[in-house]
């Protein structure tokens, strides 16, 4: 069975329950879950809205990142979903979950998964601030 159970980039709201269900595994002694949400402040500036955009290759890159994590850690199940489009304060932008035989491995694999996703998958964030200004984050 493939340990990569769920990978997606979606325009619709993300489901924590779906991700948790995807990584349920009797071989896992530890399961970690990371939920990234839209916050109201970034570097001292008030945020009103975020808009995420993804390159057409983003899902393939997400799979590449997930496969590397699964190869480097004793992962029994893995899931990652990221939202695109306009998100409001409190909306879920990204969810990653990893199940491993032990908690330390699960924490390490989950940390690698979210860090590599943010650094390597071509998803860009446009932040709109309360002062009317905006900036792109992660765009080259």
TrEMBL record:
Q: What is its EC number?
A: 2.8.1.12
> From the Swiss-Prot or TrEMBL record, what is one GO molecular function term?
molybdopterin synthase activity
Q: In which pathway does it act?
A: Cofactor biosynthesis; molybdopterin biosynthesis
Keyword Transferase appears in the UniProt entry: yes
**What UniProt keywords are attached to this protein's entry?**
Molybdenum cofactor biosynthesis, Transferase
Q: Which GO terms describe its biological process?
A: Mo-molybdopterin cofactor biosynthetic process
What Pfam family does this protein match (any one)?
MoaE
Give me the reactions it catalyses: 2 [molybdopterin-synthase sulfur-carrier protein]-C-terminal-Gly-aminoethanethioate + cyclic pyranopterin phosphate + H2O = molybdopterin + 2 [molybdopterin-synthase sulfur-carrier protein]-C-terminal Gly-Gly + 2 H(+)
> Enzyme class, one word?
transferase
| Assembly description | Heterotetramer of 2 MoaD subunits and 2 MoaE subunits. Also stable as homodimer. The enzyme changes between these two forms during catalysis.
Q: What does this protein do?
A: Converts molybdopterin precursor Z into molybdopterin. This requires the incorporation of two sulfur atoms into precursor Z to generate a dithiolene group. The sulfur is provided by MoaD.
Put simply, this protein is called Molybdopterin synthase catalytic subunit 1
* Native organism: Herbidospora galbida
């Amino acid at each position: 069975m493939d340990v990569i159970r769920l990978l997606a980039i979606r325009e619709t709201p993300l489901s924590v329950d779906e991700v948790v269900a995807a990584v349920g595994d009797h071989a896992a002694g530890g399961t970690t879950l990371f939920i990234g949400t839209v916050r109201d402040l970034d570097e001292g500036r008030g945020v009103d809205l975020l808009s995420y955009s993804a390159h057409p290759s983003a899902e393939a890159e997400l799979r590449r990142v997930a496969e590397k994590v699964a190869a480097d850690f004793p992962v029994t199940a893995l899931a990652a979903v990221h939202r695109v489009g306009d998100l409001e304060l409190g909306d879920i932008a990204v969810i990653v979950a990893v199940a491993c035989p032990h908690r330390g491995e699960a924490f390490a694999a989950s940390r690698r998964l979210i860090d590599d996703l943010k650094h390597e998958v071509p998803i860009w964030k446009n932040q709109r601030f309360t002062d009317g200004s905006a900036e792109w984050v992660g765009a080259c």
